[in-house]
């Protein structure tokens, strides 16, 4: 969800055309485990290369179409996450932290692509938007309620467990969402 120039300097609620992040799915969950097993990737370098070609590139292509659709639907500035590219020195925690700040400061609505609940990053961004009182919708523009999000994330956790893949981060997000439902003050999530 990167925006250039003047749009980047606007704050949520100030002026017209505030940005809407259209969130992508860069699978870190179920697809991670199945991808590695199905493709018999032996080394981390091979995995990164194969994942870039078979997962990230197709995801970026599909999100570009979603961004175009969201721009037409909302007639508003849209923060395009594919415009950032890879930052070699960054880890997933760096990306999550940056997107959280961007969402909190600039978004009035966050649009999530189908399958968002399978991504640690997207699930975290849902949590961030929810905590900030920012509207969350699916790619068809339908509201994503807290109960629906908790149900989807629970399904993702179960799927990951069945694949013997860690779901610890998603469990933390789910616990945070549950604490919001109960009115408790949530604690920050760290990787």
Radius of gyration, in Å, reads: 16 Å
What string, H for helix and E for strand, traces the elements in order? HEHHEHEHEHH
What is the count of DSSP helices, taking H or I runs of 4+ residues?
A: 7
Overall 3D shape: globular
Sheet bearing the most strands, described?
4 strands, parallel
Instruction: Work out the strand percent.
Output: 5-15%
The total beta strand count reads 4
Distance between the termini: 20 Å
Low-confidence stretches: 1-19, 22-36
Strand order of the largest sheet: 2-1-3-4
* Helix fraction bin: 40-55%
What class do helices, strands and sheet pairing give? alpha/beta
Q: Overall mean pLDDT score?
A: 75
How would you describe this protein?
With 191 residues, the chain is α/β, with parallel strands linked by helices. The protein has helices spanning 5-9, 30-38, 44-74, 92-106, 120-131, 146-162, 168-181; strands spanning 20-23, 78-79, 109-112, 135-138. It is globular.
Question: What is the element layout, followed by pairings?
Answer:
Elements: H1 5-9, E1 20-23, H2 30-38, H3 44-74, E2 78-79, H4 92-106, E3 109-112, H5 120-131, E4 135-138, H6 146-162, H7 168-181
Parallel strand pairs: 1-2, 1-3, 3-4
């Amino acid at each position: 969800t990167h925006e250039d120039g003047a749009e980047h300097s606007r704050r949520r609620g100030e002026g017209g055309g505030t940005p809407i992040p259209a969130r992508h799915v860069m699978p870190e969950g179920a697809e991670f485990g199945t991808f590695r097993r199905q493709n018999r990737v032996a080394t981390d370098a091979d995995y990164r290369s194969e994942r870039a070609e078979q997962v990230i590139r197709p995801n970026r292509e599909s999100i570009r179409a979603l961004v175009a659709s969201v721009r037409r639907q909302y007639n508003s500035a849209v923060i395009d996450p594919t415009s950032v590219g890879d930052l070699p020195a960054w880890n997933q925690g760096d990306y999550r932290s940056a997107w959280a700040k961007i969402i909190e400061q600039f978004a009035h609505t966050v649009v999530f692509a189908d399958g968002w609940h399978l991504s640690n990053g997207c699930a975290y961004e849902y949590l961030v938007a929810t905590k900030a009182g920012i509207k969350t919708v699916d790619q068809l523009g339908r509201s994503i309620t807290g109960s629906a999000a908790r149900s989807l994330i629970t399904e993702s956790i179960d799927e990951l467990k069945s694949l013997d893949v860690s779901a610890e981060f998603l469990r933390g997000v789910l616990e945070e969402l549950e604490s919001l439902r109960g009115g408790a003050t949530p604690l920050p999530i760290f990787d």
